[in-house]
Write a structure and sequence with these properties.
Helix content: 40-55%
Number of domains: 3
Oligomer: single chain
Distance between the termini: 59 Å
Low-confidence stretches: none
Length: about 400
């Protein structure tokens, strides 16, 4: 038996292509929690966005198999380019039948544009590479004027649907978290979230903002060593640990009031506040902070440029643009905040400060000690100054 297994393993290793364990889910937020390095992720996303692609890269997948076209041509989305740049194979347009054909945990092999389960063909698709993605992006950019017209129409529709919420605050829930006069840091697991959160280390330490985790951003805060004051969003995208540790939980429902993952959270003996809106979870978090009279709202991992807004597709643009217009100048992107609040102490000032502190310690020790003992105390004092100086620079 062992000999037969070894022969089977050698035969599998000799087959061409990329092999990996299948992980499937139409909801990428749930899929990301199950991915391991080297897995083959099977998704169902038309126009793969950069935020999702970044998360797949971070999970270490070897192949992404998409039931739909990763670039449909409606607008220039950034996700496929991110995958290919990181050496992740992308097989497109295999069809939704893949979810019935492949079972979770089965071993798949991708060879050219064919996906195999053992020796059996599971699906065929379009294998994307850098050249094909560049060509598709050029075609998508050519149709941007039509997308901007569609955006204007969807903005008007969203305003009609949500005007009472946006203009008068109708439907905003009552929270125990108090935003008035405070800085608020909203963290989502999106664009450049790791680097942006690191860049705000001094800002967080100095201003102690209210920390809000949006969707999987709750776990981003937790992994970075912070405790969220509030988490909001799709409950299925937030871990049990992040939900338990949060001071307050808000479930973002759709405009019909439906909440994903509510039963699971109630099983944890957490009764979330429900906030129904047609916008994204990010927009809901901004509206709550704005309604609470936050002094400043800083965003991490959220869209800030035209390219990023287009990458998200028409579905989320209208609500986000209107929400940002409502908040106005109190809304700041993390990159701008890091520039504004970085430590502004020159190197010369730090050196002079350290020397002055050392001299002060020396005078005190000489005045209060006799013999050689003061030298040892001075050395200890200097060690304390050096430690303090290093802490200031960190």
């Amino acid at each position: 038996m062992k000999l037969a297994l070894r022969q089977s393993d050698r035969r599998r290793e000799a087959l061409p292509g990329i092999t990996g364990v299948a992980r499937l889910d139409r909801r990428v937020g749930r899929l990301l929690n199950r991915l391991n390095s080297g897995d083959i992720a099977v998704i169902d996303i038309a126009d793969l966005d950069r935020s999702t692609a970044d998360a797949l890269v971070a999970a270490g997948v070897s192949v992404v198999v998409n039931a739909q076209p990763s670039i449909s041509g409606r607008y220039p989305n950034l996700g496929p380019e991110v995958l290919v740049q990181h050496g992740i194979a992308l097989l497109d347009e295999v069809g939704t039948e893949i979810f019935a054909e492949v079972k979770e945990g089965s071993r798949l092999r991708l060879d050219e544009d064919v996906l195999y389960i053992g020796d059996r063909v599971a699906a065929r698709g379009i294998r994307q590479d850098a050249d094909s993605i560049r060509a598709a992006m050029r075609a998508a950019k050519a149709g941007l004027s039509a997308q901007l017209q569609a955006f204007a129409a969807s903005t008007q529709q969203h305003m009609e649907r949500e005007k009472e919420l946006l203009l008068d605050g109708v439907g905003l829930p009552e929270l125990s978290t108090r935003f008035r006069g405070r800085h608020v840091l909203l963290v989502a697991k999106g664009y450049d979230y790791k680097a942006d959160l690191r860049s705000l280390k001094h800002y967080i330490r100095e201003f102690r903002p209210i920390l809000v985790g949006v969707d999987a951003g709750a776990d981003v805060l937790r992994d970075a060593g912070y405790e969220a004051d509030l988490v909001i969003g799709n409950l299925d995208e937030i871990s049990d640990a992040a939900l338990r540790e949060a001071a307050e939980v808000v479930a973002h429902a759709d405009h019909h009031g439906r909440v994903e993952g509510l039963a699971r959270v109630q099983d944890l003996r957490i009764e979330p506040v429900v906030f129904a809106s047609a916008g994204t979870s990010e927009d809901a978090a901004m509206l709550l902070a704005d309604a609470g009279s936050a002094r400043l709202i800083v965003t991490v991992g959220m869209r800030a440029t035209l390219e990023e807004f287009l990458d998200a597709g028409r579905g989320g643009i209208a609500s986000t643009v209107l929400t940002r217009l409502k908040i106005g100048g109190r809304l700041v992107d993390a990159k701008a905040a890091a520039q504004l609040f970085q430590t502004r102490v020159s190197a010369l000032s730090l050196v002079l400060l350290a020397v002055a502190a050392a001299l002060a310690i020396a005078v005190v020790l000489i005045a209060g000690s006799s013999g050689d003992s003061y030298l040892h105390l001075l050395a200890d004092g200097w060690d304390h100054v050096v430690s303090w100086f290093r802490g200031l620079l960190s």
